[in-house]
Amino acid sequence: MTFKQMTVAVLACLALSACGGVDPSSPLGQRKAIFKQMLKTSEDLGGMLRGRVAFDGARFADGAVKLDALSHQPWQHFPQVREADHTSARDEVWQKQAQFQQLARDLEAATGELVTASQVQPYKAGRLQPAVQKVEDACSACHKQFRDH
């Protein structure tokens, strides 16, 4: 196989791998991007408390603020009717809107409490753990009921 043929084959494979992806500007693409940012941010915070990442109080506080801002965003990207694209959201998201929205508000409240807890100085990981646990519990409650794992 010549270099030119191999280059064409590689480019074709890359182009095909891009097909079938989620449109990043679609509601599904928007909320997936936000949820990925939320996961990364919460993993960083949890990692600091669990010793996987060096604890940095100021960085933790900044992460808490970021997570709180993100926690208010994905809900606007759930359309009134379930989209045709493959989604991890169960049908119950659309069938039980009041309950879904309440769990969203619970997460927003938990991240708000995390921001408050992260403003207390001196920064102490042990003082932040209950607030992080409350955020994790809020995420878990919604996932158990409304996410298709």
UniProtKB/TrEMBL annotation:
The lineage of its organism: Bacteria, Pseudomonadati, Pseudomonadota, Gammaproteobacteria, Pseudomonadales. GO terms for cellular component: periplasmic space. InterPro entries: Cyt_c/b562 (IPR010980), Cyt_c_II (IPR002321), Cyt_c_prime (IPR012127). The keyword Nucleotide-binding does not apply. GO terms for biological process: electron transport chain. This is Cytochrome c556. Binds 1 heme group per subunit. Residues 1-20 form the signal peptide. Keywords: Electron transport, Heme, Iron, Metal-binding, Signal, Transport. It comes from Pseudomonas orientalis. One of its GO terms (molecular function) is heme binding. The keyword GTP-binding does not apply. Heme c binds at residues 139, 142-143.
